[in-house]
Amino acid sequence: MAMKIHNYMEDMAADKLEEILSEKDDICKCQKCRFDMIVWALNHLPPKYVVTEKGRMYTKLIEQDVQFRVDIVKELTKAVLRVSRNPSH
Ligand SMILES: [Zn+2]
């Protein structure tokens, strides 16, 4: 049985970033900027480790955590502002 530890915050941050970027059309959305945004946000958020087994994730509790979502959107919004004002390319 192959079990792995995974930081679920990475998946949530990537999903939420796409939502936030879809509402903006005046900033760079290249892959480098997207990665810079996610990395900046992840460095300001606590990790959410889950055990994954055969591709299945045990995330039901996390998905219901409203504060968890609020914090992600808050940090991603800051990250988008910082990176779009000063892209590293
Ligand atoms: Zn860019």
Gyration radius, in Å: 14 Å
Estimate the mean pLDDT confidence.
88
Strand content: 5-15%
Tell me the number of structural domains.
1
* Main sheet attributes: strand count, strand direction, barrel closure: 3 strands, antiparallel
Heteromolecules bound: zinc ion
Total number of strands: 3
**Number of helical regions:** 4
Order of helices and strands: EHHEEHH
Q: Which class do the helix and strand fractions yield?
A: alpha+beta
Q: Which term fits the overall shape?
A: elongated
Q: Which strand order spans the largest sheet, edge to edge or round the barrel?
A: 1-2-3
Catalogue the unreliable spans: none
Roughly how many Å apart are the termini?
A: 43 Å
How helical, in percent, are the residues? Answer: 55-70%
Describe the 3D structure.
- With 89 residues, this protein is of the alpha+beta class.
- The chain has one domain (3-85).
- Helix content is 57%, strand content 13%.
- The chain has 4 helices and 3 strands.
- The chain has helices spanning 8-22, 31-42, 60-63, 66-85; strands spanning 3-7, 49-53, 56-57.
- The chain has a 3-stranded antiparallel β-sheet.
- Helix 1 crosses helix 2, helix 1 crosses helix 4 (66-85) and helix 2 (31-42) crosses helix 4 (66-85).
- The longest helix is centred in the last third of the chain and has 20 residues, at 66-85.
- It starts with a strand and ends with a helix.
- Zinc ion binds next to helix 2.
